[in-house]
Amino acid sequence: MIVIGSDHGGYKLKEEIKKYLDEKEIKYIDKGTFSEESVDYPSIAKEVAKEVSTKKADVGIVICRSGIGMSIVANKFKGVRCANCYQEQTAKFARMHNNANMLALGADYITTNEAICIVRQFLATEFEGGRHEARVNLISEIEKENMK
Predict the structure, then answer these.
(1) Domains of the chain: total
(2) Which pLDDT score is estimated for 116?
(3) Could you tell me the pTM of the whole model?
(4) Which comes out higher in pLDDT, residue 146 or 119?
(5) Angle 11-23/112-124 helices, nearest 10 degrees?
(6) Tell me, what's the pLDDT at 147?
(7) CA distances from 75 to 63, 92, 105, 140 (A)
(8) Is 64 one of the catalytic residues?
(9) Residue 86 domain boundaries
(10) SS3 letters for 51-64?
(11) CATH value at residue 26
């Protein structure tokens, strides 16, 4: 299950990504926003990250103008590894090497086609494990030490 959300700056791109997910018959939950009316991005990122953190969703996608604010908020949640990606290659390695479970996109810096390619790559890539497993485990240990 995928959970998706955007602020007003990412709304149009979110709607295009939803069309792609619908075409591919990929199930998702939309946590908002539902228009281009101004909203505070932390509220949306919180709702999406909460679903991933509690394992109600396997993957989250958040979209704002830059992707930065959304990724900062998402990474405040235990068990969330949100990567802000601007190209397919970074999405691939975010999953393969970092076992990222959330993707942040910056609507002002990528086209709809690029965004769909990034989403497709992110969803298609599996965690490689191996030498990366120990590093992801270190991230989890740091998280346990610092997130109460």
Answers:
(1) 1
(2) 98
(3) 0.96
(4) 119
(5) 50
(6) 84
(7) 14, 19, 14, 12
(8) yes
(9) 2-146
(10) HHHCCCCCEEEEEE
(11) 3.40.1400.10
